Structure formats: C-alpha cells, structure tokens
C-alpha cells in the first residue's frame, strides 16, 4: 500500500517570472519580519521568489501550529483573492526572503490580459490547497509518529531543512518549527525521535538530529498506516458483532 505525499510543484520558469513581475510588487523581508498578522485585511496573493515564509496559527501563549512553510515558487496569503476577507494566519520570514505581491486589482488585470499564465498560477494555488486538506486529514487520523514521518518526507521533497547531500538536519530552531508543523508537543516529538534514534533510523549529534536517507521513511509510514487500518477494521468488526449480539 502506498502513502500519498504531496508532489513537488514545478518551479516557475524565467518567462513566467518575468510576466508575473510585470503585475506584482517585489519586496525583500529580513529574517524574523512579520509580513502580515491573522485578522488583518487580506488583499491579493504572495509568490515566494526566494527564502522561507512560515505561516503560523497561534494556539496559546508560547505555542503555535504551522500549516505550511512557503519556499521558492510557492504562494501564500491567497485568501486575499476573495473580497472583504482577512488573513487566517501570521506570515513571517524565517530567513531573508523575497516575494512578489499581486494585489486583487492587479491579479484581475493579470487574469484578463494573460489568462493562460493566470490559469497556471491558479492551478498552483489549488494544488497547495489540496496539500493542506490532506494535512488536515492526517491531523485527525494519524498518530504523532505517522505525522512526524509524513512531515519529514514533505520537508525533504521541498528541501526545507535539507543539506546538499539530501540529508535532513534538525538543529534546535528547526526542531521547534518541526513540532509546530507536526501539530504536537515537543515532548511527544522527542519521544518518537528518541525511538527512531534507538532503531538507527535517525542519528543524534549533540543537540541536532540527522536523517541521512529520508526516503527510507516511506516504507515505515506504509507499514504503520497498514497496521492502523487493520486496527480500525478490527475495532469496527468488534462493534458490529456486539450490536448483532444485542439485537439477537
């Protein structure tokens, strides 16, 4: 049984970027800069040209949930394409980042004058939305370990935390961000990572965790999901038998 992990969306070509830059406003954000906050009026859509933008929902003091990290060629803030809306997350530059912003008015001009390119951009936005819906499913159906592995596979595909050799390196700052991506406490994630270290899947060097071959995690997630489906099937069958006995 295969696990569905979002595919890597194709990069924008130089021609596409040139067209978009004709309609959008370019900006460079220093590391740690808040681009917008939840609840503020939303307008248009942002496209990442370089760097990392973290979208965060504040849960409580000192804690948050990160639905996604936008990297090169990803979009964010697309709720601004609907009129009279507000942003639903905070958006902060995790490192020095460059973006292109198409206001609602400029996006409509783009749609009228360059419909083919606009359709490509809309398809990209919808693909990203599909990935968010799949992540919502994971939050409600998978264990912390399964969500952690799925998240590691995603960041590996997008090369969010990867080194040149393809390995994932989780320093203290990345570890905190990983916990918010998984949607679990640091204690829960630490227990899973410690178990993976004991099994030789993950290495620990000082305060950092190293996953040298992230692709090997796919088989483990497949196995865990199969076990989960068997467990749920057994529970469902047991419930059906008890209902049948009570009717008899």
Walk me through what this model shows.
The chain has 248 residues and is α+β, with helices and mostly antiparallel strands. The protein has two domains: 14-140, Jelly Rolls; 142-247, Arc Repressor Mutant, subunit A (Orthogonal Bundle), CATH 1.10.10. The protein is built from seven helices and eleven strands. It has helices spanning 14-23, 104-113, 115-141, 144-157, 172-182, 186-198, 217-247, and strands at residues 25-29, 34-36, 44-50, 53-60, 63-70, 75-80, 90-93, 97-102, 168-170, 203-205, 208-211. The strands form three sheets. The chain has a four-stranded antiparallel beta sheet. It has a four-stranded antiparallel beta sheet with strand order 2-7-4-5. Strands 9-11-10 form a three-stranded antiparallel beta sheet. The model is unreliable at 1-8 and 226-235 (pLDDT under 50).
């Amino acid at each position: 049984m295969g696990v569905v992990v979002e595919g890597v969306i194709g990069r924008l070509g130089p021609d596409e970027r040139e067209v978009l830059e004709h309609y959008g406003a370019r900006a460079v954000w220093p590391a740690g800069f808040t681009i917008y906050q939840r609840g503020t009026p939303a307008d248009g859509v942002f496209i990442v040209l370089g760097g990392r933008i973290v979208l965060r929902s504040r849960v409580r003091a000192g804690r948050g949930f990160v639905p996604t990290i936008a990297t090169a060629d990803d979009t964010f803030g697309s709720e601004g394409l609907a009129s009279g809306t507000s942003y639903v997350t905070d958006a902060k530059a995790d490192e020095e980042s460059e973006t292109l912003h198409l206001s609602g008015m400029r996006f409509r001009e783009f749609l009228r004058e360059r419909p083919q390119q606009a359709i490509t951009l809309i398809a990209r936005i919808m693909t990203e939305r599909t990935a968010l819906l799949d992540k919502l499913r994971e939050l409600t159906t998978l264990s912390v370990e399964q969500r952690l592995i799925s998240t590691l596979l995603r960041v590996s595909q997008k090369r969010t935390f990867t080194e040149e050799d393809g390995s994932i390196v989780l320093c203290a700052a990345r570890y905190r961000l990983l916990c918010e991506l998984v949607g679990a406490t640091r204690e829960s994630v630490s227990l899973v990572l410690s178990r993976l270290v004991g099994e030789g899947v993950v290495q620990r060097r000082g305060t950092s965790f190293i996953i040298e071959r992230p692709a090997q995690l796919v088989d483990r997630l497949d196995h865990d999901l199969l076990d989960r489906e068997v467990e749920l099937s057994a529970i469902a069958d047991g419930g059906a038998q008890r209902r049948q006995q009570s009717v008899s």
